[in-house]
Specification:
Layout: H1 4-34, H2 37-67, H3 76-95, H4 99-125, H5 131-144, H6 156-175, H7 179-210, H8 216-249, H9 259-270, H10 274-279, H11 283-311
Helix pairs in contact: 1-7, 1-8, 1-11, 2-3, 2-6, 2-8, 2-9, 3-4, 4-5, 4-6, 6-8, 7-8, 8-9, 8-11
Length: 312
Amino acid sequence: MSTTRRDLIRRLRLLLVLATATTLALFLAYRGVHDDTVPLSTASTPGIRAVDTARSALRQANAVVRETGAEGDTSGEFLTQISVAQQSLALAASENVTGLTGRHDVQTVTGLIAVYSGWVERRGREPEGSPLRAAYLHYAEKVLGLEAEAGTEGDIMSRLDALRGEQLAEARRQAAFPWQLWLGWCTVAVLYAALCGALLETQRFLRHRFRRPVQLRLLAATAVCAAGVPVLAWQTLSAHRAMTDSVAGVQVPPAVPDAVPEGAGEVRGALADAGFWASLSDLIPLGGAVVAALALWGLWPRIAEYRFRSQR
């Protein structure tokens, strides 16, 4: 009695199980990486750069106060830098990298900037030579965090440093590749190899049993697997490298103020296509369904043919 029908059914079941398992594992592993690429590129790193811009603007504002006389304390350059700092902090708050705590920190710093500006304005109203000018500058720089005894949690710079540290910790978490992701991608590799092997073995079986050189539907299923999974895996590796590079790029605040926008441009460039590649995760279930459908379409006519033969 021929066992062909039973062999075909067994191979079809194996292909459907492997296609389903590979699709599920690939979907979860792919999303595990790419779900963090968009937040990292559009929120975390811009939020960190916004804090860097605010720090730089405040230092430049204070430099204007020190380098100019009374007429420079509330000059256009000073007010411009204060405005830049406030706008940058508003951007940092809108990115919502660290949640409610981060927004509260930004509100506190914004209030302290107003206090700092108030001391600077009072200094500017004093005539040249007044001893109060030095006292008001001392109070302003103490609020700012540039005095020798500064560095406590209450001044502006210390709060910005703490906020930046929290944002950087979140960015590192997003760019990390923990053991769960390693396990997921190792599972994908094993299932992918098994699926490709099963497809090739089934085609070999059909070629020897039915004397046909190729089964186009199974060949198409093999092509989908051979092309799709490696491309997604390679892009995931590239995305992870870009995420790591982006975090490394914002690891240390730029020493030169002009380097802040340059660094921000480099970060955006590294993850420019993050949204597109993340959206491809929605196509993974479709690809798995195509592979399963092609396997079913390729084997079922043969299975049905042997069923009819057994009935005769």
